[in-house]
Amino acid sequence: MKKNSNNLFWISFSDVMTSLFFVVLVLYVLTYVMLKKQQNNLLVENEKLNQILKLEQQFKPLQNDNDFIYLKDCKKYISKTLSKIEIFEPNKTTIKKKYQTAAINVGKQIESLLQNLNTNNTNFSYLIIIEGNMANTWDKKYNKNNNYGYNTSYKRALAVYQLWNRNNINLRQYNSEVLISGSGFNGLCRDKIEDNNKRFSVQIIPKIEYSN
Predict the structure, then answer these.
(1) What is the pTM assigned to this prediction?
(2) pLDDT at 192
């Protein structure tokens, strides 16, 4: 009887140890999978960071270009030749003739930049925002959210896009999407001289694309 009891003990002990082994094995596998996933996530994030740093370097030629000025507070570049001037006639949506050549040159420079960016960054696509702006009256009679301001400034941005199209400037061909927008009498980084807000600006927003 005692012998049978010992046998049962060892059989039960063996079952317990086998079960514990499988539990430990399962925990090990789960831990390994989780750590591996975290490691892969870190690698992806690190790659994204490297791509962003690389992209910043590729925007640097604009800083050395005498045709552009970098506004630190706004984090964007503006054309020196089109800065501090009234590009549009009052209440009009077409660019003044004397500034059209300068506007075309800006479009060509942006197109050239996008071509280089697209060549050097295959994992990026770009969102190009052409934004029209409006100047308020001296007595600020227009509310910042006035619909007239939004509609007219949108048409100004559209006029810029159409001017570029007529001169064979195609920003969409370099993995880019173009949005036409108008901020009206509103928006960040407005010029302190109100008349100088009769202008447009262009923002280039990179988007990183990775497959899982």
Answers:
(1) 0.69
(2) 84
